[in-house]
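Our consortium's second objective concerns turning raw sequence data into structural hypotheses that experimental partners can test. To show how far this objective has progressed, the report includes one record in full. It was chosen at random from the queue rather than selected for favorable results. The single chain below, 198 residues long, was entered without modification.
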Amino acid sequence: MGVGVMRSAVLASACLLWLTACETTSTRLPDILAGNPPAPSVAANDMAGLETTGTIPTPQPDYGPKGAPPILGIDPNDDLSVAKQQFRLENYGIAERYFRRAVEAGPNDAEAWLGLAASYDRLKRFDLADRAYEQLARLVGRTPEVLNNQGFSFILRGDYARAREILLAARAKDPANPYIKNNLELLEKSARTRKAVR
């Protein structure tokens, strides 16, 4: 099979995956990390509403320069794509395994680290989530989005005081961010009712 035919098949597969996947947001992580705030877009079957920053986006086909190594998250069968799909399906253990493989293959991939941290949060492995968030902060800094996800992590733990501190720091950096606003509201509701977030 020729390279052109193979690329066409991969592109078609990626497009089909993109069309059938349930996205949590239309924003890609590079856009978020670059400071372009996302517009909230909640699907009926959104895995967690707007609590997180929509950090598990569906990849857009972009194969980069000819002859360049493949970009993680583009091939529907690479570790990052499988991890994101499994996370959307709420198979957090499987998602964690593939996100871990993705960060091992690309230790500077912020999207993979963010997905790994979110998976650890959902598995209640907060010690490992903290490590992943620290690595992510070393890569991209303590952006409002990183702080927002860390704040959500502390809501999951029931540590409302720490969650509030982190979310307020996130809001100070990006007062108009709808995800941070949503997490602050979720925090107040959780603290008031003492009902854990799932």
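The partners drew two points from this record. The two ends are 47 Å apart (CA to CA). Residues 3-20 form the longest helix (18 residues). Both points have been shared with the crystallography group to help prioritize constructs.
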